[in-house]
Amino acid sequence: KTIETPDGQEIPAQAVIITALANDQDIEVLSAPTLLTLDNQEARIVVGENIPFITGQGIDAANLNNVFTTIERRDVGVKLTITPQVSEGDIVILNIQEEVSAVNEAISAQLVTSVGPVYTIRSAETTVSVRDGRTVVIGGLISNSLTTASSKVPYLGDIPYLGRLFRTDAERGEKVNLIVVLTPHIIRNAGDMAVVSDRSGRAFRETLSNEPGQGAARSKADSIPGLGSPIINPDIDPTAGLLPPRQAADKHF
Predict the structure, then answer these.
(1) Could you tell me the sign of the dihedral formed by the alpha carbons of 29, 32, 35, 41, in that order?
(2) Are the beta carbons of 167 and 152 closer than 8 angstroms?
């Protein structure tokens, strides 16, 4: 059977299919690096890719048909830079620079190849003070996007009211909130260093023993230390005593 359109064309009759799909995901990908640095020395970590970007083009004066391109490689992903300063009373002043960048595939696909990719960037810079062994929570890099896509049967999907039976509309909302949780620990002696090294080694071995994908995604915000309540510098150490007291650490000698 066929259906005749208003302009006289005939198209095959289509069965009406009603579909409903609801997808709600609450996934937080966690990265828990450990940075070791000296007092007043910068520590930096980058998790991402090194992507080439076109910075300029030119023509060879000797050969006008020879066009050369200048390329600069940039780190795209999650970048975190921290500079600690230890003050009196075991207070640590942290100068923090955080940046999240990603290639915008939708816009880059619409541009000519010679222009290169387009990337989005979100960054923040702040200075906070926190006591040794306490946790500070830094957030605010939030992005919210809503995209709408529609697929329909030609002609029939454009009919007012009735066209909804031959058209499928889909909305996709995405909200990303980046939260950085920092817990500084002052390493006073070799005993403290041994404890940190041993704990990092155990965590690394546990990561290798897990199945692929395990430990990388969590569905509950309370799985992050320090996020039980919106408190800056809480009184409870969320790491459950990563470093022992100084008296206990001295026993390693």
Answers:
(1) positive
(2) yes
pLDDT band at 109 (very low <50, low <70, confident <90, very high): low
- Looking at every residue in the chain, the average pLDDT score rounds to 69
**Amino acid present at 8:** G
Q: What's the CA angle centered on 226, arms 86 and 143, to 5 degrees?
A: 100
In this predicted model, what pLDDT tens digit does every residue of 19-52 receive, in sequence order? 444 455 555 555 667 788 889 999 998 888 888 8
Q: Which of 180, 220, 166, 167 has its CA nearest to residue 33?
A: 180
Whether the model pTM is above 0.85? no
